Amino acid sequence: xxxxxxxxxxxxxxxxxxxxxxxxxxxxxxxxxxxxxxxxxxxxxxxxxxxxxxxxxxxxxxxxxxxxxxxxxxxxxxxxxxxxxxxxxxxxxxxxxxxxxxxxxxxxxxxxxxxxxxxxxxxxxxxxxxxxxxxxxxxxxxxxxxxxxxxxxxxxxxxxxxxxxxxxxxxxxxxxxxxxxxxxxxxxxxxxxxxxxxxxxxxxxxxxxxxxxxxxxxxxxxxxxxxxxxxxxxxxxxxxxxxxxxxxxxxxxxxxxxxxxxxxxxxxxxxxxxxxxxxxxxxxxxxxxxxxxxxxxxxxxxxxxxxxxxxxxxxxxxxxxxxxxxxxxxxxxxxxxxx
Length: 339
Hints:
The protein is α/β, with parallel strands linked by helices.
């Protein structure tokens, strides 16, 4: 018999102590009161919430990773009926099992969320009954929830859910307490809006934050730390743009230009990797996942600077080689700048 070959070892980067949250019990979920009847639920990777009122319950999101455990967690706390369901945004990984809630519960979401859910026709994600454009105030059984939309960010319609009586704020898929954002800058649809939402978050008077992911709650300090990290990523991406001319020549010499995608990817990867190194060194002791995603974040931000913000230096994939090209000056041919 052929002898089984040992699998290559994988070096797993250390995780800073501040990234860890409470341990999830063997039942598969943790439910804890944040403050004043506001509860959060997590299985370690996703989070949702609910609010206990005088005679009813308001549910917020229902991730498929928790499934029916969301209702079970609510029933661990109260037998009051679930009368309202709030959608943070339209993504299935956060509201994909909202059909576990009563059909007659009033569903609330931002207008963009409604439009997208109507278009997607997913029976598990019933479009909201009540919609809003910029803001909606919900007062139920002694509890107040303010829903606020500040524009496109991680996804169209992704909204703040603020509980001012308890200084609790919920915003999903933007802040990752103790960690850097997930891949592709949290799979965000609009990177400039994602960046702006750090400042929008800090405009709220909150003490505790429910963020939709990972296994601990967030604080203002977490928002400030991630904002600083993302600004460093933006600076790194700008540097990657400036490195592109050199990496383009390296890529051409290394892999040629016949396979255009390999040529492009080699150039992008080299520029992003070099530019991200100072960010990795700075943030490795402070945030989990830096080694895993900082280069990816730099690449995504690099593309956002090009596509969304039209930043210079412009990237020239195939610069002219003929110094007599019409409309060009010989001095410009060796550079990626467009002036």
